[in-house]
Amino acid sequence: MNKSRVLVIIQFLQLIFVLKGHSQTCNPTIPGADWDALVAFKPANSIATSAGSRGMPVLSIYDATSLLNATGVVPSQVNLDYWGVTISKMPEVNRKKLKPEELLSRIRSRFSTYFKSNLAKFQPLDPSDAPGWTNGVVGTLLLFRIQFQLVPGPKVERLAPVMLAHSRSTAWRFVTVGNHPVSGTREFGIRQRSDGLWEIYTRGADRVTSSAVDWPTASGIFEGGDQVWEAFQDAVAADIRSLGGQVSDAPSVHARYCWASMLARVPRPR
């Protein structure tokens, strides 16, 4: 089947999808500048080239020309989210109160344990990548196995490879690579708020990767991501409480915004 015929079929399905009340709307008002750096983020050429040589090219949010707006019926979206845990009392290990960087290091070392298996699993892409993840080596390739809901239909597993593209004591970033269903960047970190309290967080900015397979399941992809990161937030909070810490959920953001609005704020870097 040639590409033009595939596009016609996709457009027809898209129209039916909209007429049945499943329209993909977007919010034109970007909630602030906090996501700008993630949208503009580009990994170093050396590690991007290395990932490409392993068949895992970096997926740029600017190149995610999704079929969501192929007919002009549905606006192209960008997902922006923030999930945080506010810490009013730092946890202790061996009767020693953890420093902010030590807490984030603990979370990274236990990262895979914070995911519900019915929502997502996390592992090195290859056993040879395990030391790189442990030691925070940028360029390390990792893999999420994400469950998401088809619209309509059952849950399906989707492989979602990422690359560790930025690594510091207070934050790290994943960029999506290969056949990941979205294109973008996600950051995990710990930050001090203006009131002096610390907050463990994850913040993401991504768009559905251009694909005839991904288009009909866009809602499921984004909503599935919301479920994964909300559950992750709850698991991190429970871990901190188990060590004597005191936490509360920070206000979350998770919505689909108009890509045109974000692009006007953050044009593609030259």
Percent in strands:
25-35%
Q: Per the principal axes of the C-alpha atoms, what is the gross shape? A: globular
The overall number of domains is 1
Series of H and E elements:
HHHEEEHEHEEEEEHEEH
Main sheet? 9 strands, antiparallel
- Total helices: the number is 7
How helical, in percent, are the residues? 25-40%
- Rg, alpha carbons: 19 Å
> What is the CATH topology descriptor?
Alpha-D-Glucose-1,6-Bisphosphate, Chain A, domain 4
CATH H-level homologous superfamily name:
START domain
SS-based structural class? alpha+beta
What's the pLDDT, averaged over the residues?
Answer: 87
Low-confidence stretches: 6-11, 14-22, 67-73
Distance between the termini: 37 Å
Give me the CATH architecture, please. 2-Layer Sandwich
Number of E-state strands: 11
Q: What is the CATH domain class?
A: Alpha Beta
Describe the protein:
- There is one protein chain.
- With 270 residues, this protein is α+β, with helices and mostly antiparallel strands.
- The chain has a single domain, classed as START domain (Alpha-D-Glucose-1,6-Bisphosphate, Chain A, domain 4, 2-Layer Sandwich), CATH 3.30.530.
- 29% of the residues lie in helices and 30% in strands.
- The protein contains 7 helices and 11 strands.
- The strands form 2 sheets. Strands 1, 4, 5, 6, 7, 8, 9, 10 and 11 form a 9-stranded antiparallel sheet that branches. It has a two-stranded antiparallel sheet with strand order 2-3.
- A hairpin with a 5-residue loop joins β8 and β9.
- The longest helix is centred in the last third of the chain and has 25 residues.
- It is globular.
- About 8% of the residues have low confidence.
